[in-house]
Amino acid sequence: KGDSSMLKRAMAVAQHHDAVSGTEKQHVANDYAKRLAGGWDSCQILITNAMASLMGRKEHFVFCNLLNISVCQLTATSSEFRVILYNSLGRNVQTYVRVPVSGLVFNVTDPSGQNIPNEVVPISNFTRALSYDETLANNELLFQASVPPLGFCVYSVTKTSVDPLQRTKAEQELHRAK
Amino acid sequence: AVPLQIENKHLHVLFDPVTGLISKIENLDSGITLPITQNLYWYKASSGNADNPQASGAYIFRPNHSEPIPIAKAVQTHLVQNTLVQEVYQNVSSWCSQVVRLYAGQKFLELEWTVGPVPLDDDYGKEIISRFETPLATEGIFYTDSNGREILERRKDSRETWKLSQTEPVAGNYYPVNSRIYIKDEKIQLTVLTDRSQGGSSLLSGSLELMVHRRLLFDDHRGVGEPLLEDGAYGKGLIVRGSHRLFVDSVEASADLHRLQAQVEFMAVQTVFAPGVESPNHQK
Questions:
Q1: How many CB atoms within 10 Å of residue B279?
Q2: Does B83 touch chain A (CB under 8 A)?
Q3: ipTM, 2 decimals?
Q4: Is B84 on the interface with A (CB under 8 A)?
Q5: C-alpha distances in Å from residue A137, one per residue of A5, A100, B224, B229, B265
Q6: What is the 3-state secondary structure (H, E, C) of B112-173?
Q7: DSSP letters of chain A?
Q8: What would the pLDDT profile of B182-227 be if each residue is shown by its tens digit?
Q9: Cβ pair B20, B97 in contact under 8 A
Q10: Tens-binned pLDDT, residue by residue, of chain A (178 aa)
């Protein structure tokens, strides 16, 4: 059962005690972090339920909390996956999506099934150093998404097999970038 | 010797060939060009002095000197240039790096900084800032927001309702920044959107700074009983990664840009993944 009240409570406690400013002892800071993480876990179930309801079927949704350091096991290890974007603003939003991947060439299709431009860029050494042993990906896939107001859209990503010439070209591009 | 540059249809950003730092931002829509330097610095935290035993700590920001120290005067750079994104990677030090990023079609420049673990082997607590310096004649006036709603004018070494005797030239001019800070002259405005609440100030005419990280060795005796000295998961100190978004435009056009973009940052698009693909795809 999804429940947003755990996160609501954790946020309220954190705000009341100025938790982000560091004006608490370390073991209390650790407790605040634990409460927030527990609250977010519970919210993920709520979001999963909501998305399943909107999409009309149950799905195995995956949340990648470490995307800012390019860690996401699903996208890094799968040859096909979906990126589901939810926009809580009352207007259309254009956003760039970056997902860690292992591969050089991908097909990305938008909600209407059209292929859209995408690029593969290497994960920087800065980021690699942060993610320690958790990074399974070599590169990041980048594409622009358009998300409708107060709604969601699904982009599908497929790793494509490449001919040797294409692979060599892509590898050279990445090598140059690195 | 050839300066690095990145450009989309709205912005052109130039980097100094010697230092590797940003040297100029040109708004191609309005024709405004702003010479600008941005670098990361650190303030040496006070442990108390003869004037006042107050140490810098969780509650109190108190550098022991007014001039911040650059983490590096020149940075190692490399450029990644693609159609959708152009990035300049700046390697500032072993514990500090930054990516200057320009996506196709976007009207702002993104600076993604990664700072930490802050070293303490010299026995100095450190408060790390990102400082922007421009020739804008701002005369100590800058603007900070209150949760994105009211934007307040801040005046260096001054308070609106009483005569201030400034005893802390740096900390006494720092103000909370919830989502944005800006400086402007009669024509040009430089706005920085933050991705989290930070402290910020403008200590020199035309400059603007934001504190991005701090790691301290002393308790400030205001009730915590501990220095702000988090070890993090790997026992070496916390590493923080965040971003600043820069707008350079006319004073008249700036509010329209930063207000809309701040909504996008605050109510950010949520990303969820699922295995497999589907056809037809969904949008609802």
A1: 7
A2: yes
A3: 0.91
A4: yes
A5: 35, 6, 41, 32, 26
A6: EEEECCCCCCCCCCEEEEEEEECCCCCCCEEEEECCCCCEEEEECCCCCCCCCCCCCCCHHH
A7: ---SHHHHHHHHHHHHTTGGGT-S-HHHHHHHHHHHHHHHHHHHHHHHHHHHHHHTS----B--TTGGGT--HHHHH-SEEEEEEEE-SSS-EEEEEEEEES-S-EEEE-TTS-EE-EEEEEPPHHHHHHSTT----SEEEEEEEEE-TTEEEEEEEEE----HHHHHHHHHHHHHH-
A8: 999 999 999 999 999 999 999 999 999 999 999 999 999 998 899 9
A9: no
A10: 889 999 999 999 998 887 877 788 989 999 999 999 999 999 999 999 988 888 888 888 999 999 999 999 999 999 999 999 999 999 999 999 999 999 999 999 999 999 999 999 999 887 877 776 666 788 999 999 999 999 999 999 999 977 666 667 667 766 666 6
What is the spatial distance between Cα B239 and Cα B235, in angstroms, rounded to a whole number? 11
Binding-face residues of B in 203-222 toward A, CB within 8 A: 222
CA distance B205 to chain A (A): 28
d(CA A78, CA A103): 10
Q: What is the largest CA-CA distance in chain A?
A: 60
Q: Taking chain A, what is the end-to-end CA distance rounded to the nearest angstrom?
A: 45
Which residue do the tokens 């608490």 mark? A24
Query: A7: which 2 tokens?
Result: 């996160």
The whole-angstrom separation of Cα B90 and Cα B85 is 16
Looking up tokens 């690699």 gives A128
Q: Supply the DSSP symbol for B187.
A: S
Q: Which residues pair with B213 in a beta bridge?
A: B128
Q: CB neighbours (10 Å) of residue B70?
A: 17
Using a 10 angstrom Cβ sphere, with 0-12 exposed, 13-18 middle and 19 or more buried, the burial of residue B215 is buried
| A118-122 β-sheet, strand order | A93-101, A139-147, A118-122
The residues, any chain, with a CB within 8 Å of residue B189's CB and separated by 6 or more, are B182, B183, B247, B248, B249, B250, B251, B254
What's chain A's length in residues?
178
* Contact across the interface for A89 and B82, Cβ inside 8 Å: no
Q: Do B274 and A144 touch (CB under 8 A)?
A: no
Residue in this structure with the two tokens 């006494």, named with its chain if needed? B172
Using CB atoms, pick whichever of A55, A93, A111 lies closest to residue B269.
Answer: A93
- Compute the nearest-CA separation of B84 from chain A (Å): 7
